[in-house]
Every structure is written in structure tokens, then in C-alpha cells.
Amino acid sequence: MAARYGFNFLWMFIWQEGKAPEPVDLNALDLMQELGLDFVRIPMDYRHWTKDFDYMNPDEDVFNHVDSYIKACRERGLHACLNFHRAPGYCINRNNLERDNLWLDEVAQEGFAYQWKLLAERYKDIANDFLSFDLVNEPPGIGQYGMTREKHAAVVRRTIDAIWSVDPDRQIVIDGLGGGNIAMPELADLDLIQSCRGYQPMAISHYKAGWWSGHEGLPEPTYPNLEWAGKVWNKDTLRDFYKPWLDVEKMGVKVLVGEFGCYNKTPNDVALRWFADLLSLFKEFGWGYSLWNFKGAFGIVEHGRPGTEYEEWRGLKVDKKLLELYLENRVEN
Questions:
Q1: Where are the domains of the chain?
Q2: What pLDDT, on a 0 to 100 scale, did the predictor assign at position 1?
Q3: CA angle in degrees (0–180, nearest 5) for 292-261-147
Q4: Closest among 157, 232, 244 to 197, alpha carbons compared
Q5: By the 8 A CB rule, do 69 and 75 touch?
Q6: Rounded-to-integer distance, Cα 142 and Cα 151, Å
Q7: Where are the alpha helices (DSSP H) in 123-217?
Q8: Secondary structure letter of residue 185 according to DSSP
Q9: Which of 18, 95, 243, 283 might form a disulfide with 329, Cβ 3.0–4.6 angstroms?
Q10: What is the DSSP letter of 5?
């Protein structure tokens, strides 16, 4: 897949019993088309179509919502990337809600592969130009929840075999281990895209983010030369952080930055200096990227970081300087 650029959209991200997924945001997609952006990552929660952990009997009517997302993207020449943010037996957020363990339990592994196979069958006639599958969002760190590299690789290989049994050409994305941060040379033999993250240092990107335990006691961030986690963070530190991903790329793996972003408690001038270094490195590496997310506390629209200058586009308040950085650091394909 050529380098693509866009956003995460949370239409099927938040599950609440009895509540339908959100409709597609056509205005946002129209804005993307106008700006020449082309990548729509769609994190999904399997509980939208699965009840009481009955993985093998999903309510396929719910997939009509996914149909509408893909259709709206295709009509605008945009690529949709479907992702299980919460998968049978695992989620990086509130994993305790799961009954089973994706890395240890056969019932979860079977259900995970089965549900992806259903989607592969449903969308097998849609070309890779318009659709890819991102198997599971941000697998845990090695040893967490009993996961090892070997167990993760076994789950991935089993699932892609299920997908490719009905759609042998479907483009598949796998997120790095350790929350998307660790490259996977053990899977470099497969024709997959490996997806990394752009959240380091988290003392900038997740400053005062209450769901991250590391936020406690952090001083207001500065950049460059922020001291955190035993390092002084600047552009060179960021370049070093991505070396394992450059190494796996040399093995023939395509790399994508599936998520990056900055929470809205970080002062915007600090965030912009960090974004400038981060995005310029992605351009240097030739990697596509997808901001988490479009609208909200991490977004490019109405995020609320102190000191932001907004410009109105299609009735939306867009972070003007971030958008400029976003567009100027694309690579011509």
C-alpha cells in the first residue's frame, strides 16, 4: 500500500448496550477529499455485533453500518482500514471486561479468526485500494496477559489464514507489540503492513491523560529536550526510537503510523514543536500516518489545546498550524 494520510474515526469505537453505532461523518470525509487526504482508520468494538461472548453467532445486520462507512469512503476515493480496537479476549483499555484471553484461550482465538473471516467474505469484491484489515489494536507488552512473541505470531498467522482462505489478496495490517511500539521481525516473511505509533514521549502526548497511570505527577511538558523515562527527548531521540521499525522495513516490511496524536492538556506551542519533528521524520522515512483522531481531545478539529489558532473549514474549527504541518509532510507517491 502506498503511503496514505488521514485520521481515525470513532463511529464504532464506543459500545453501549442498546445504542447503535454512529453514522458516517460525510462532512469530515468531504473535507478530507478537498485536502487530498485519503486514509480512514475505523477502530471498532466487537461487542456491537456480539452478545454475551457468543463469538460464533454475530449479528451480521450490524455490519450494515460498516457497509455504509466503506461506501462513503469509496465514493470519495478514500481508503477504509477496519480495525478491531476491542477484539474477542483483548483490549488495551479496560481489558478486565473480557471473559477470555485472546493470547491463551482457544475460544477467543477461534472467534477472532471467525469474525475476521466473515468480514473477508463480505468484502472480498472490494479492492485493496479501498479497504484493508487491521487485525487488533495495540497488542500488549511481551509477558502481559501471558502473551509472548510466539503466541502473538500464532494468533496472527491463524487469523490471516482464515482471511486469505476466502480473500487471498486482502491487505492486512498488524499493530506493533507493547501498545504499537515494538516491531515484529518474526512476521516479516508475511506480506503484511506493520503499524507503529507516534505517541513518544508520552509525557507530551498523554500529559494529564487520566486513563494512563504514568500521567501522575508529571510537570508541564516542554519540547525539545524534555527529560522523561531516562532520556532527553528531541528529534534525534525520536529517530533512535524508530530504528527497529526501519530495520524491519529493510526486511521488506511496509510500515504505517496507524496512530499518533497529542492530548489537549499539553500547551499547543509545545505540541506543535513536537509534531513538527515527528511528522518530518515520518516524511524522511516515507511513512503514511493517521492522526488519533479527527475531532476531539486528540484531534485536528476543536481539540481545545491551550493557545490554538483555529480556521473554519466546512463549519469545523481546524487547528490551522497542525493542518499545515500535516499536509507539508506528506510524501508524493
A1: 5-328
A2: 64
A3: 75
A4: 244
A5: no
A6: 10
A7: 149-166, 177-180, 202-205
A8: G
A9: 283
A10: E
Q: What pLDDT, on the 0 to 100 scale, is given for residue 332?
A: 81
Joined grid coordinates for residue 7? 485520521
Q: Answer yes or no: pTM beyond 0.70.
A: yes
| pLDDT at residue 2 in the model | 79
Domain 5-328 CATH superfamily? Glycosidases (3.20.20.80)
Distance of CA 6 to the CA centre of its chain: 11
Using CA atoms in the order 174, 178, 181, 185, what is the torsion angle rounded to 10 degrees?
Answer: -60
* Residues of the chain below pLDDT 70: 1, 333
Distance CA 245, CA 53 (A): 35
The type of residue at 129 is D
Question: Which residues on adjacent β-strands are paired with residue 311?
Answer: 318
Dihedral sign (CA 278, 5, 39, 21): positive
E-state strands within the chain? 5-8, 39-45, 79-87, 90-91, 131-134, 172-175, 193-198, 226-228, 231-233, 254-260, 288-291, 310-313, 316-319
Nearest to 228, CA basis, from 289, 264, 184, 270: 270
Number of H helices, E strands in the chain: 10, 13
